[in-house]
Amino acid sequence: MRLWAISDLHVGHPDNRTLIQAIPDHGPDWLILGGDLGESLDHLVFVLDTLGPRFAKLLWIPGNHDLWSRPGDPRGEDKYHQLVEACRVRGVTTPEDPYLLWPGPLPPGLGAEAPIHLAPLFLLYDYGFRPAEVSLDGVLDWAMEENILCADERLLDPHPHPSRVAWCHTRLKLTEDRLSALPREVRTVLINHWPLRRDLLFIRRVPRFSPWCGTPLTEDWHRRFRAVVVVTGHQHVPRTDWRDGTRFEEVSLGYPREWRRWLGEAPVRPSLREILPGPAI
Questions:
Q1: pTM: predicted TM-score of the whole model, two decimal places
Q2: Bridge partners (DSSP) listed for residue 264
Q3: 281 is a domain residue
């Protein structure tokens, strides 16, 4: 039994839909869906209904694309809860559900006495990943100096919150309280769409996209909440890194022009990242 992860499926692209349909049955394994499955409820439903029968359990978190609102869509939290409900009726775990105890094998060296809870998170971003000399009020102008402006500024409505920053800080407080309530002997797998640390940003082609990539308020969460693994996406740069003995897995698929760089022109299926048991701690 293994825990796998993949994010940024962007199934609005036909080539990505074909790849997702090619993922084989994994029997007892579990799968994390790390956000940005698409841009609509229909995209989410397609992924859940395609992969749900192929894994014993799915866990889902939203990304920014999932939360985009087109004309006629619910906005902000209403859109989020629409997606949560679509997951729940299919038995998919979301950030609104109790954290699950991992029933499978543990990483070598961790010790059988260390239970692991899987914690799907929804934290957003607060534009804090910006240079110290750039103010919050000036961050969009700073990004636009390099012609960078995230589509979230048009499509990710924070309703009913006054701003995405306010929504982010509300989610941070709610999540911090939940994680702090876990027993001290519990280890975690923290699962969030946006990176938790600024030193793990690798969008080198567009460095001024960093304000939309997370918040510095989570820099130490892997230590505070005893994470064995931190799973993120958003950057479309799949890789493994280590900080303070914690493994960080970026699990994106990305757009066809991106995944063809490492999967080739005609891959049979996308690569899933193994989260647990994984390598030795």
A1: 0.96
A2: none
A3: no
